[in-house]
Design goal:
6-stranded mixed sheet; about 45% helix; globular; alpha/beta
């Protein structure tokens, strides 16, 4: 798939049947912000079948400053990212420069899946406005991995080494807990306001952050059940077990929410994430990517969402849908600057 696209500074819509390449466009934009695909964990899977290389380039206007971001990768070789002519030595140095929020069907895991997806949501937001957080998280995860390796060695006990890993986990874990708690406290009121607007005030929602850090000093919590950890072969306690408990009208969302309510909850989370990132970090308005999100939503909720994102507080928006009439209806409601692209067989026409 090859395309050279000139986008509107307002809304950009991509219409096409499933499998025609709409999500590839969205994923390319995501790739340039996060140095990876939103769908394929293995970089080589992003190279088209029969091709040898992947190349992406984006020209950005960041608060009046032109930035050129490019990525190149050959099969079986390490990808390279550049900012202008400068090659990034570490991919993590790029995170946060181009803030972006993606809402897609895959995000339903946030609501219906395990706690790992919700921790990933927390960490992705915080790392975009506080770059040092990513390094703390990496140190915690490395110590956790090393401690788990020791726990699997049945015939050997390395108390000094175990103590060292536990101290690193406790120190970095409490810092992670502090940042996650601070974020959630600021995030919840924004989230509840968005959900109220999308649902026309028909439901109330809540989020509760749970962590082993709430049981006392994390070092004590980790060391308290070391014998159980040896039996299980992995670490039972730490911030790698943190979770967000999501509720609708005071009841667990997983059990009580309809498909439309769950999707409204998810979209509210992501729009709140957008709002939060806009006001923090680089103070750059994030790109908003809405990939096939209107399915399972009634017309009132779709209208409410469209009105929200067409507000002047949102910047450049990218929307995909299979139904051209839906998209044209959305554009007629919004007005303003926009472009409509037709996608078929990997070919994009405006």
């Amino acid at each position: 798939m090859h395309a050279d696209l000139d986008f509107s500074s307002g809304i950009n819509c991509f219409v096409g049947l499933n499998g025609e390449g709409k999500t590839n466009v969205i994923d390319s934009i995501y790739f340039l912000s996060f140095t990876k695909s939103s769908t394929n964990v293995v970089d080589s899977l992003n190279v088209r079948h029969g091709a040898e290389i992947l190349m992406l380039k984006g020209d950005y206007d960041l608060n009046g400053v032109h930035e050129e971001i490019s990525c190149g990768m050959k099969l079986h070789q390490k990808k390279q990212f550049r900012r202008g002519d400068k090659l990034y030595r570490r991919m993590s140095d790029h995170i946060g420069l181009l803030p972006l929020i993606l809402v897609s069907p895959n995000d339903q895991e946030l609501v219906t899946g395990g706690s790992e997806s919700r921790r990933r949501f927390l960490d992705s937001v915080i790392s975009q406005y506080k770059p040092s957080y990513l390094g703390v998280l990496q140190r915690y995860n490395k110590a956790l991995q090393q401690r788990n390796s020791l726990l699997k060695q049945e015939d050997a006990v390395f108390d000094d080494l175990m103590d060292a890993y536990e101290h690193i986990m406790a120190e970095t874990g409490e810092e992670i807990y502090f940042e996650r708690s601070k974020f959630i406290d600021a995030f919840i009121p924004i989230f509840q306001e968005y959900y109220s607007k999308i649902s026309s005030n028909n439901e109330t929602v809540g989020i509760e952050y749970t962590s082993h850090c709430q049981r006392g000093p994390l070092l004590e919590v980790i060391q308290r059940d070391r014998s159980k950890d040896f039996i299980m072969g992995y670490s039972l306690h730490g911030v790698h077990k943190d979770d967000l408990v999501m509720s609708l009208n005071g009841y667990p969302l997983k059990k009580e929410g309809s498909q439309g309510q769950s999707k409204s909850y998810l979209i509210s989370l992501k729009l709140s994430q957008f709002n939060f990132l806009k006001e923090t970090g680089s103070h750059t308005t994030p790109l908003l990517l809405l990939d096939d999100i209107f399915d399972k939503l009634d017309s009132e909720r779709v209208s409410n969402i469209v009105k929200l994102v067409s507000d002047s507080g949102f910047g450049q928006i990218f929307i995909t849908d299979t139904n051209r009439e839906n998209i044209e209806g959305i554009l007629s409601m919004i007005g303003g600057s926009h472009k409509l692209f037709q996608v078929k067989g990997g070919v994009i026409e405006s």
